[in-house]
Automatic annotation (TrEMBL):
Residues 266-330 form the Ig-like domain. It comes from Nestor notabilis (Kea). InterPro entries: CD4-extracel, Ig-like_dom, Ig-like_dom_sf, Ig-like_fold, Tcell_CD4_Cterm. The chain crosses the membrane at residues 344-369. Keywords: Membrane, Transmembrane, Transmembrane helix. This is T-cell surface glycoprotein CD4.
């Protein structure tokens, strides 16, 4: 593992090891030069391949022909910021074990370990690579949609950005709330060559896998959102028995009215704006009438999922979902009044119906009276015939 440059007389040692530490002496005639070689070996846990929230562990070993110095070790992340580290309790001067901070996906890059000693004077930098496989999405992302709209949910993986050269798999699950049964929507895998394969799993859930999308992106498309499509969409990566996940919470909003159709004069209807999940403290619902006054504005209370407003006149009403003073989604509901002639027709029809009913009642009464009179007349005639018949019989007997 060593070779000598014949011209410069330099000694080159390849694949340096801890056991190579020692004193190297060069003799030329009566001229002797000695050089002490101090060797450091730095290793990182899991071969430098991590998932978010994992804690790297650095091991620094030193070997010297002289007594081992007490070292000061400083670690710098890829952004040049100092990383807080904790020394293990069972450290010796020969072996230092440092635990670093919990990692994030953005921590990937080349890190630096600086080694310092005053006696002997040592200022040595050793670089090492840290690769964190994960999502470029936030840990919990909230997305809002209105009923019947189209929504695309996407998760951006960073494996191409960090040049990950290992296989890993993943899946996408959905459930309406935390305690509900999870439904597996999608399976995917990425090969060491960076090839991505996706397989649709669910058959009862209406969603699509968009064909055109950036590489390293997991996407699902809901072409027509239903109110019960809301819930948690959780994308999970699996690498060597370890897991990391990213969740998108879909909140769906709808509006409805207490009755369908135009609003009759003098009547009142209730408009309801509703969301599928409780809102965060910085989010609320707001009803407003277009071109209305301040009196036509109504705001929901904290964590309220339903907001109602009573309407007694025609107009265009809008419900907004507002997060940090930013309107995320809106739905409108037009309220129309029944035309005046419709009202007159309805009144006329009502009066006409009443008159007709009264006329029919009178006809029935008259018909009943006449029928009774006919029955009485027939009865009197029958009695008269019976009387005449009895008198005739008596005269014949005499």
């Amino acid at each position: 593992r060593s070779e000598i440059d014949r011209k410069t007389k330099h000694l080159k040692v390849l694949d340096l090891r801890l056991s190579d530490a020692g004193t190297y002496t060069c003799e030329s005639d009566s001229y002797i030069v000695s050089i002490s070689l101090h060797v450091f070996q730095l290793t990182i846990s899991l071969d430098g391949h991590f998932l978010p929230n994992e804690v790297p562990e650095l091991t620094l070993m030193q070997s010297s022909p002289h007594s081992l110095p007490d070292l000061t070790i400083t670690v710098f992340a890829s952004n040049k910021n100092t990383v807080r580290s904790t020394l293990s309790e069972n450290n010796t001067r020969q072996k230092y074990i440092l635990k670093l901070k919990q990692l994030e996906a953005t921590d990937s890059g080349t890190w630096m370990c600086h080694i310092h000693s005053d006696s002997p004077l040592i200022n040595q930098n050793i670089s090492f690579d840290v690769k964190v496989l994960g999502f470029q999405n936030p840990n919990l992302e909230r997305k809002y949609a209105t009923v019947d709209s189209t929504v695309i949910l996407s998760w951006l993986l960073n494996f191409q950005k960090i040049k990950w050269k290992e296989d890993f798999t993943g899946q996408l699950n959905w459930k309406q709330h935390e305690s509900a049964t999870a439904h597996e929507l999608l399976d995917f895998s990425v090969t060491a060559r960076g090839e991505q394969h996706e397989t649709k799993k669910s058959s009862h859930f209406l969603f699509e896998i968009p064909e055109s999308k950036p590489e390293g992106t997991i996407k699902v498309k809901l072409p027509k959102v239903h109110f019960n499509h809301s819930g948690q969409y959780k994308c999970e990566l699996a690498y060597k028995g370890r897991y990391v996940q990213s969740t998108i919470e879909l909140v769906v909003m709808k509006v409805s009215a207490s009755h369908v159709g135009p609003l009759p004069r003098g009547a009142e209807m209730t408009l309801t704006c509703q969301v599928s999940h409780p809102l965060s403290s910085n989010t609320h619902l707001l009803w407003e009438r277009v071109n209305g006054t301040q009196m036509d504005i109504k705001k929901s209370k904290q964590h309220e999922v339903k907001l109602e407003v009573n309407v007694s006149a025609a107009g265009l009403w809008k419900c907004h979902l507002i997060e940090d003073n930013d309107r995320k989604i809106s739905l409108h509901y037009p309220v129309e009044e029944t035309p005046v002639w419709n009202t007159y027709v309805a009144i006329g029809a009502s009066i006409g119906g009443s008159v007709l009913a009264l006329g029919l009642a009178c006809l029935c009464i008259i018909s009943s009276i006449r029928s009774q009179q006919r029955r009485q007349r027939r009865k009197r005639m029958a009695q008269a015939r019976q009387y005449l018949l009895e008198n005739k019989t008596c005269q014949c007997q005499r």
